[in-house]
Amino acid sequence: MKVNGNMQNFYYYSFPMQAVLVTCNDRSGKTNVITIAWHTPISKDPPLYGISVAPKRYSYGLIQKTKEFVINFAPYEIADIVNFCGKNSGRNTDKIMKMNLTLAPAQKLKTPIIKECFSHLECKLHDELKLGDHTLFVGEVVNVMADKNAYKKDLLDVEKIKPTYYVGGNIFTSISNIKGVF
Ligand SMILES: Cc1cc2nc3c(=O)[nH]c(=O)nc-3n(C[C@H](O)[C@H](O)[C@H](O)COP(=O)(O)O)c2cc1C
């Protein structure tokens, strides 16, 4: 038997989505971090990755000004930090300091990576599409970095690394040990 879902939360029906930490700098070089669940690869050639950001977010103006951002993939061990960075604004909170996150230089951008995350996509703003109440920032991926032992032949070692997934509301989860090889 089927029941009708709640249209207002239609996007929850596509969840869980991996919740990522996106770093972006202000003009003075100070780094902010925003939690993003609405994100997707878009193109292989050129390599494009999109994040959907509401204009009221503090990070929105930062990305528009610096034209760059880094996608940091967070392990489940720091899911509480992912939640905090999605519930507090860089307008009035230094989330990096408060959450004790460690920044390290990116290779191609001024915006840093977050060391506690297991992989990083360095993105230069390629396009900006206002779509409804969010804007799709399309980044050209100019560099990829990852922890040495997190990937085997570019595939996440899912027995070792548990990414952070967002179910919706206040609920987070990760992946189980099920690994189908077909
Ligand atoms: C798990 C989670 C996922 C989120 N995903 C998005 C998203 O995809 N796009 C967005 O604009 N806001 C998203 N948010 C909300 C922002 O992360 C939140 O408003 C944050 O405080 C904005 O930070 P800033 O003002 O420092 O930019 C999400 C929040 C949580 C908790």
List descriptors.
single chain; three-stranded antiparallel sheet; Pnp Oxidase, Chain A; 182 residues; 11% helix; seven-stranded antiparallel sheet; binds flavin mononucleotide; mainly beta
Structure description:
With about 180 residues, the protein is mainly beta. The chain has one domain (about 15-175): Electron Transport, Fmn-binding Protein, Chain A (Pnp Oxidase, Chain A, Roll). The protein contains three helices and 14 strands. The protein has helices spanning about 60-65, 80-85, 95-100; strands at about 15-20, 20-25, 30-35, 40-45, 50-55, 70-75, 105, 115, 120-130, 135-145, 150, 155, 165-170, 170-175. The protein has a seven-stranded antiparallel beta sheet with strand order 3-2-6-9-10-5-4. A three-stranded antiparallel beta sheet has the order 1-13-14, with no helix packed on it. The radius of gyration is 16 Å and the shape is globular. Bound molecules: flavin mononucleotide. Flavin mononucleotide binds next to strand 3, strand 5 and helix 1.
